[in-house]
Amino acid sequence: MASPSLLVPSRHTAFAALKAGLDHAAIAVPRTLVERRIPSAVPAIDRVLDGGFPTGSLVTLEGPAGRWSIAASLVASVTRRSAAAIVDDGALYPPDLARSGARLERVLVIPATSPLTVARAADVLVRSKACRLVLVPAPELRAAVWMRLAGLAHRSGILLVAVPPPQASSARIAPLAAAAALRLYCTRGRMEILGKRGVWCTFAGYDVCAEVRKNRNAAPEKRAVARAAVC
Fold it and tell me: Which of 7-11, 48-52, 104-108, 216-220 has the lowest mean pLDDT?
């Protein structure tokens, strides 16, 4: 009779089996079934972007406000038919995703707090092709790292979206901006108040102004104004 140790696969064997499960041949979506653009579910933004965010590219959502509202709408759009992955540095608030219409059972959340773990998680997720959308925070990383991730997204046909912190300076995000195919700068516009102003009024939401600061497929400096959910 074989000893118990021989009946349990080694860590090397288990890892090899897991890697095989993530192999391109096992999980890749046929190219004919993959859209060239992913709608954000925000009509004004999709019109400016000629239908949505381009797949196979690195995109940034920058600015002081509205970034996560657009990101949540994008996650909702993707999870209607596919899966999305979010690398979470602590900024994620799942109820906001649920209110946007995202199917949380199709959202993979990977905790990562350091720049190195964020980069590694993004690398693995994009190469696996397990999710159509990979949403990551944008820590300060070397230009070579962002260029590598942009190249992986292009080869994999995955939409990789990076969200810098609101206070990030132009110098800090310069390496990311150089690697990105599309950059949206988001600011808060007009607020919507229900009822008379005072103690009985209700804050219903606000407009997000999204400025296209870079687009390799179109002229820059287009603007979109879209309704955003309360965050």
Answer: 7-11
- Strand-pair partners of 225: 209
Q: Is the pLDDT of residue 177 over 90?
A: yes
Is pLDDT larger for residue 85 or for residue 97?
85
Any residues with CB less than 8 A from the CB of 78 and at least 6 apart, and which? 38, 84, 132, 133, 159
pLDDT in tens, 211-226: 888 988 776 556 566 5
Is residue 210 over pLDDT 80?
yes
Q: Find the helix or strand (DSSP H, E) in which 87 lies.
A: strand 84-88
93, 95, 105, 88: which is closest to 163 by C-alpha? 88
In a domain, 21, yes or no: no
Answer whether 0.85 is exceeded by the pTM. Answer: no
Neighbouring CB atoms inside 10 A of 53's CB total: 24
Tokens (6 digits) for 215: 């687009």
Q: For residue 113, give its domain range.
A: 40-228
Residues 32, 129, 139: CA angle, nearest 5 degrees: 130
| Residue 27 maps to a domain | no
Q: Exposure string (b/e) for 132-168, b if CB count within 10 Å is 16 or more?
A: bbbbbbbbebeeebbebbbebbbebbbbbbbbbbeeb
Q: Does residue 35 belong to any structural domain of this protein?
A: no
Tell me if 119 is assigned to some domain. Answer: yes
